[in-house]
Amino acid sequence: SPGVVTIGETMALVTLPSSGRVTAAAPVVLGVGGAESNVAIGLARLGVPATWVSRVGDDALGALVVRELRGEGVTVLAPRDPDAPTGMMLKEHRNGRPTRVRYYRGGSAASLLGPADVDRAAVAGAAVLHLTGITPALGDGPRAAVRHAVDLARSEGVTVTFDVNHRKTLWSDEEARPVLAELVSKADVVFAGAEEAELVLGTPGAAEEELVAGLAGLGAGTAVLKIGERGALAHRDGVRTHVPTTPAAVVDPVGAGDAFVAGFLAELVAGRPLETCLRTGNACGGLVVGVPGDWEGLPTRAELTEAGHAPDGGDV
Ligand code: KDG
Predict the structure, then answer these.
(1) Are strands 56-57 and 75-77 parallel, antiparallel or unpaired?
(2) Is the shortest distance between the CB of 34 and ligand 1 below 6 Å?
(3) Does 289 sit in the ligand 1 pocket, CB within 6 Å?
Protein backbone atom coordinates (compact mmCIF):
# COMPACT_ATOMS: atom_id res chain seq x y z
CA SER A 1 0.00 0.00 0.00
CA PRO A 2 1.23 3.53 -0.70
CA GLY A 3 3.02 5.11 2.21
CA VAL A 4 5.00 8.20 3.11
CA VAL A 5 8.14 9.53 1.43
CA THR A 6 10.32 12.06 3.23
CA ILE A 7 13.55 13.89 2.37
CA GLY A 8 16.12 15.18 4.83
CA GLU A 9 19.39 14.89 6.67
CA THR A 10 20.02 12.31 9.38
CA MET A 11 23.08 12.76 11.52
CA ALA A 12 25.06 10.65 13.90
CA LEU A 13 23.89 11.74 17.33
CA VAL A 14 26.50 11.80 20.10
CA THR A 15 24.88 12.13 23.51
CA LEU A 16 26.66 12.91 26.75
CA PRO A 17 24.13 11.44 29.13
CA SER A 18 25.76 11.68 32.54
CA SER A 19 27.33 14.92 33.74
CA GLY A 20 26.94 16.34 30.25
CA ARG A 21 30.46 17.73 30.31
CA VAL A 22 32.63 17.22 27.27
CA THR A 23 35.77 15.80 28.86
CA ALA A 24 38.29 13.24 27.71
CA ALA A 25 36.99 9.71 28.19
CA ALA A 26 33.49 10.94 29.06
CA PRO A 27 31.09 8.09 28.33
CA VAL A 28 28.96 8.92 25.31
CA VAL A 29 26.04 7.18 23.64
CA LEU A 30 26.08 6.96 19.86
CA GLY A 31 22.81 7.08 18.00
CA VAL A 32 21.22 8.69 14.97
CA GLY A 33 18.72 11.51 14.57
CA GLY A 34 17.04 13.69 12.01
CA ALA A 35 13.57 15.17 12.03
CA GLU A 36 12.43 13.49 8.80
CA SER A 37 13.85 10.06 9.60
CA ASN A 38 12.39 10.31 13.11
CA VAL A 39 9.00 10.64 11.42
CA ALA A 40 9.81 7.75 9.05
CA ILE A 41 10.71 5.48 11.98
CA GLY A 42 7.50 6.45 13.78
CA LEU A 43 5.47 5.58 10.70
CA ALA A 44 7.26 2.26 10.17
CA ARG A 45 6.58 1.30 13.79
CA LEU A 46 2.91 2.09 13.23
CA GLY A 47 2.89 -0.19 10.19
CA VAL A 48 2.97 2.49 7.48
CA PRO A 49 5.48 2.02 4.63
CA ALA A 50 8.04 4.82 4.97
CA THR A 51 10.80 5.84 2.58
CA TRP A 52 13.65 8.19 3.51
CA VAL A 53 15.52 10.03 0.72
CA SER A 54 18.92 11.53 1.52
CA ARG A 55 22.68 11.34 1.08
CA VAL A 56 25.21 10.05 3.59
CA GLY A 57 28.99 9.96 3.66
CA ASP A 58 30.81 6.81 2.67
CA ASP A 59 32.00 6.51 6.26
CA ALA A 60 31.25 4.60 9.45
CA LEU A 61 28.65 7.16 10.58
CA GLY A 62 26.82 6.91 7.26
CA ALA A 63 26.77 3.12 7.60
CA LEU A 64 25.38 3.56 11.12
CA VAL A 65 22.59 5.83 9.91
CA VAL A 66 21.58 3.50 7.08
CA ARG A 67 21.74 0.40 9.31
CA GLU A 68 19.60 1.94 12.05
CA LEU A 69 16.93 3.16 9.65
CA ARG A 70 16.81 -0.12 7.72
CA GLY A 71 16.67 -1.96 11.04
CA GLU A 72 13.56 0.05 11.88
CA GLY A 73 11.94 -1.01 8.62
CA VAL A 74 12.42 2.28 6.76
CA THR A 75 13.20 2.07 3.03
CA VAL A 76 16.45 4.00 2.54
CA LEU A 77 17.22 5.77 -0.74
CA ALA A 78 20.53 7.40 0.16
CA PRO A 79 23.66 7.16 -1.95
CA ARG A 80 27.01 7.14 -0.10
CA ASP A 81 29.12 10.14 -1.04
CA PRO A 82 32.86 9.36 -1.02
CA ASP A 83 33.75 13.07 -0.93
CA ALA A 84 31.58 14.41 1.92
CA PRO A 85 31.09 13.20 5.50
CA THR A 86 27.94 12.21 7.34
CA GLY A 87 26.77 15.06 9.59
CA MET A 88 26.99 14.89 13.34
CA MET A 89 25.12 16.33 16.28
CA LEU A 90 26.27 16.65 19.90
CA LYS A 91 23.62 16.59 22.60
CA GLU A 92 24.65 17.76 26.06
CA HIS A 93 22.77 17.10 29.27
CA ARG A 94 22.77 18.73 32.70
CA ASN A 95 21.04 17.09 35.63
CA GLY A 96 19.51 14.50 33.35
CA ARG A 97 17.91 17.04 30.99
CA PRO A 98 19.13 17.79 27.48
CA THR A 99 20.33 21.38 27.38
CA ARG A 100 22.10 22.04 24.15
CA VAL A 101 22.41 20.57 20.68
CA ARG A 102 25.38 21.48 18.49
CA TYR A 103 25.56 20.64 14.80
CA TYR A 104 28.64 19.54 12.86
CA ARG A 105 26.98 19.40 9.48
CA GLY A 106 28.38 22.16 7.27
CA GLY A 107 29.51 20.53 3.99
CA SER A 108 27.94 17.21 4.96
CA ALA A 109 26.85 14.71 2.33
CA ALA A 110 23.19 15.61 2.90
CA SER A 111 23.91 19.31 2.39
CA LEU A 112 24.76 18.30 -1.20
CA LEU A 113 21.28 16.88 -1.85
CA GLY A 114 19.80 18.02 -5.14
CA PRO A 115 16.79 17.49 -7.40
CA ALA A 116 18.45 14.44 -9.01
CA ASP A 117 18.29 12.65 -5.64
CA VAL A 118 14.51 12.85 -5.59
CA ASP A 119 13.29 9.45 -6.77
CA ARG A 120 10.42 10.20 -9.15
CA ALA A 121 8.77 6.78 -8.86
CA ALA A 122 8.96 6.80 -5.07
CA VAL A 123 7.30 10.23 -4.82
CA ALA A 124 4.71 9.52 -7.51
CA GLY A 125 3.76 6.23 -5.86
CA ALA A 126 3.41 7.64 -2.34
CA ALA A 127 0.26 8.61 -0.49
CA VAL A 128 2.08 11.47 1.24
CA LEU A 129 5.27 13.48 0.66
CA HIS A 130 6.42 14.82 4.04
CA LEU A 131 8.93 17.67 4.25
CA THR A 132 10.30 19.97 6.93
CA GLY A 133 11.82 23.44 7.01
CA ILE A 134 15.18 21.94 7.97
CA THR A 135 16.03 20.54 4.53
CA PRO A 136 15.72 23.86 2.62
CA ALA A 137 17.95 25.43 5.30
CA LEU A 138 20.83 23.11 4.41
CA GLY A 139 21.78 24.87 1.18
CA ASP A 140 20.77 25.70 -2.38
CA GLY A 141 20.83 22.07 -3.54
CA PRO A 142 18.58 20.73 -0.75
CA ARG A 143 16.26 23.73 -1.26
CA ALA A 144 15.99 22.91 -4.96
CA ALA A 145 15.42 19.24 -4.11
CA VAL A 146 12.53 20.16 -1.82
CA ARG A 147 10.94 22.45 -4.42
CA HIS A 148 11.33 19.79 -7.09
CA ALA A 149 9.76 17.13 -4.86
CA VAL A 150 6.81 19.39 -4.00
CA ASP A 151 6.14 20.18 -7.65
CA LEU A 152 6.37 16.51 -8.56
CA ALA A 153 4.02 15.47 -5.74
CA ARG A 154 1.49 18.14 -6.64
CA SER A 155 1.49 17.21 -10.30
CA GLU A 156 0.97 13.53 -9.34
CA GLY A 157 -1.82 14.29 -6.87
CA VAL A 158 0.27 13.17 -3.89
CA THR A 159 -0.63 14.85 -0.57
CA VAL A 160 2.11 17.22 0.63
CA THR A 161 2.64 17.69 4.37
CA PHE A 162 5.07 20.23 5.80
CA ASP A 163 6.45 20.72 9.30
CA VAL A 164 7.84 24.27 9.55
CA ASN A 165 10.61 23.12 11.97
CA HIS A 166 12.48 26.45 11.86
CA ARG A 167 16.11 26.00 12.94
CA LYS A 168 17.58 29.35 13.92
CA THR A 169 21.09 27.90 14.01
CA LEU A 170 20.90 27.01 10.31
CA TRP A 171 19.53 30.25 8.82
CA SER A 172 18.21 33.63 9.87
CA ASP A 173 14.53 34.47 10.33
CA GLU A 174 14.77 36.86 7.37
CA GLU A 175 16.24 34.24 5.05
CA ALA A 176 13.87 31.52 6.24
CA ARG A 177 10.58 33.39 6.17
CA PRO A 178 9.84 33.58 2.43
CA VAL A 179 10.98 30.00 1.85
CA LEU A 180 8.92 28.62 4.73
CA ALA A 181 5.88 30.66 3.66
CA GLU A 182 6.17 29.34 0.10
CA LEU A 183 6.27 25.75 1.33
CA VAL A 184 3.32 26.34 3.68
CA SER A 185 1.32 27.70 0.75
CA LYS A 186 2.06 24.60 -1.33
CA ALA A 187 1.30 22.03 1.38
CA ASP A 188 -1.98 20.26 2.01
CA VAL A 189 -1.24 19.92 5.72
CA VAL A 190 1.09 22.17 7.68
CA PHE A 191 2.43 21.67 11.22
CA ALA A 192 3.92 24.53 13.24
CA GLY A 193 4.60 25.77 16.72
CA ALA A 194 3.23 29.19 17.73
CA GLU A 195 6.59 30.97 17.29
CA GLU A 196 7.05 29.42 13.86
CA ALA A 197 3.56 30.47 12.81
CA GLU A 198 4.28 34.04 13.98
CA LEU A 199 7.43 34.08 11.85
CA VAL A 200 5.75 32.70 8.73
CA LEU A 201 2.77 35.03 9.04
CA GLY A 202 4.74 38.05 10.25
CA THR A 203 2.28 38.53 13.13
CA PRO A 204 4.19 38.45 16.43
CA GLY A 205 1.95 38.17 19.46
CA ALA A 206 -1.10 36.91 17.54
CA ALA A 207 -3.51 34.60 19.36
CA GLU A 208 -3.29 30.86 18.66
CA GLU A 209 -6.67 30.90 16.89
CA GLU A 210 -5.43 33.61 14.52
CA LEU A 211 -2.15 31.80 13.91
CA VAL A 212 -3.73 28.49 12.94
CA ALA A 213 -6.34 30.22 10.78
CA GLY A 214 -3.59 32.32 9.20
CA LEU A 215 -1.54 29.28 8.25
CA ALA A 216 -4.58 27.64 6.70
CA GLY A 217 -5.27 30.91 4.89
CA LEU A 218 -1.85 30.83 3.22
CA GLY A 219 -3.07 27.88 1.20
CA ALA A 220 -2.53 24.78 3.30
CA GLY A 221 -5.93 23.10 3.48
CA THR A 222 -5.25 21.91 7.00
CA ALA A 223 -3.12 23.75 9.56
CA VAL A 224 -2.06 22.19 12.84
CA LEU A 225 -0.60 24.26 15.67
CA LYS A 226 1.37 22.16 18.14
CA ILE A 227 0.68 23.66 21.56
CA GLY A 228 2.86 21.37 23.68
CA GLU A 229 1.30 20.07 26.86
CA ARG A 230 -2.07 21.45 25.75
CA GLY A 231 -2.13 19.20 22.70
CA ALA A 232 -2.92 20.45 19.20
CA LEU A 233 -5.16 23.01 17.57
CA ALA A 234 -6.22 22.45 13.96
CA HIS A 235 -7.98 24.52 11.33
CA ARG A 236 -9.66 23.04 8.24
CA ASP A 237 -12.46 24.44 6.08
CA GLY A 238 -13.02 27.24 8.57
CA VAL A 239 -13.54 24.78 11.43
CA ARG A 240 -11.28 24.80 14.47
CA THR A 241 -10.56 21.57 16.36
CA HIS A 242 -8.69 21.43 19.67
CA VAL A 243 -7.59 18.04 20.95
CA PRO A 244 -6.02 18.23 24.40
CA THR A 245 -3.41 15.75 25.54
CA THR A 246 -2.86 14.03 28.83
CA PRO A 247 0.25 15.27 30.68
CA ALA A 248 3.30 13.07 30.13
CA ALA A 249 6.38 12.46 32.26
CA VAL A 250 9.15 14.22 30.33
CA VAL A 251 12.61 12.65 30.30
CA ASP A 252 13.76 14.08 26.94
CA PRO A 253 11.48 16.53 25.08
CA VAL A 254 13.44 16.35 21.79
CA GLY A 255 11.47 14.51 19.14
CA ALA A 256 7.99 15.26 20.49
CA GLY A 257 7.06 17.20 17.35
CA ASP A 258 8.30 14.46 15.02
CA ALA A 259 6.39 11.83 17.01
CA PHE A 260 3.24 13.94 16.76
CA VAL A 261 3.65 14.16 12.98
CA ALA A 262 4.26 10.41 12.68
CA GLY A 263 1.07 9.61 14.61
CA PHE A 264 -0.92 12.18 12.65
CA LEU A 265 0.31 10.91 9.27
CA ALA A 266 -0.33 7.26 10.15
CA GLU A 267 -4.03 8.10 10.63
CA LEU A 268 -4.11 10.44 7.61
CA VAL A 269 -2.81 7.68 5.34
CA ALA A 270 -5.43 5.32 6.80
CA GLY A 271 -8.12 7.83 5.84
CA ARG A 272 -9.19 8.53 9.41
CA PRO A 273 -10.85 11.82 10.47
CA LEU A 274 -8.85 14.89 11.50
CA GLU A 275 -9.67 14.45 15.17
CA THR A 276 -8.23 10.92 15.11
CA CYS A 277 -5.06 12.22 13.43
CA LEU A 278 -4.65 14.81 16.19
CA ARG A 279 -5.41 12.32 18.95
CA THR A 280 -2.86 9.74 17.77
CA GLY A 281 -0.32 12.51 17.17
CA ASN A 282 -0.71 13.63 20.77
CA ALA A 283 -0.41 10.06 22.06
CA CYS A 284 2.84 9.45 20.13
CA GLY A 285 4.30 12.75 21.34
CA GLY A 286 3.44 11.86 24.92
CA LEU A 287 5.17 8.48 24.68
CA VAL A 288 8.39 9.59 22.94
CA VAL A 289 9.29 12.16 25.62
CA GLY A 290 9.18 9.48 28.31
CA VAL A 291 12.49 7.92 27.27
CA PRO A 292 15.90 9.35 26.32
CA GLY A 293 16.60 9.80 22.60
CA ASP A 294 14.86 11.62 19.75
CA TRP A 295 12.84 8.63 18.48
CA GLU A 296 13.60 5.56 20.58
CA GLY A 297 10.32 5.85 22.51
CA LEU A 298 8.10 5.92 19.41
CA PRO A 299 5.27 3.43 19.86
CA THR A 300 3.96 0.53 17.81
CA ARG A 301 0.17 0.18 17.45
CA ALA A 302 0.23 -2.44 20.21
CA GLU A 303 2.13 -0.09 22.52
CA LEU A 304 -0.36 2.69 21.82
CA THR A 305 -3.19 0.38 22.81
CA GLU A 306 -1.30 -0.72 25.94
CA ALA A 307 -0.88 2.94 26.85
CA GLY A 308 -4.66 3.27 26.79
CA HIS A 309 -4.95 5.02 23.44
CA ALA A 310 -7.99 4.30 21.29
CA PRO A 311 -7.63 6.12 17.93
CA ASP A 312 -11.31 7.00 17.66
CA GLY A 313 -11.69 8.33 21.18
CA GLY A 314 -12.32 6.81 24.55
CA ASP A 315 -8.79 7.39 25.84
CA VAL A 316 -8.16 6.70 29.50
O1 KDG B 1 13.13 17.15 15.64
C2 KDG B 1 14.24 16.65 16.29
C3 KDG B 1 15.38 17.11 15.47
O4 KDG B 1 15.65 18.42 15.76
C5 KDG B 1 16.62 16.36 15.64
O6 KDG B 1 16.44 14.98 15.50
C7 KDG B 1 17.72 16.90 14.77
O8 KDG B 1 16.88 16.93 12.56
C9 KDG B 1 17.38 17.51 13.47
C10 KDG B 1 17.73 18.91 13.25
O11 KDG B 1 18.21 19.20 12.16
O12 KDG B 1 17.53 19.74 14.13
Answers:
(1) unpaired
(2) yes
(3) no
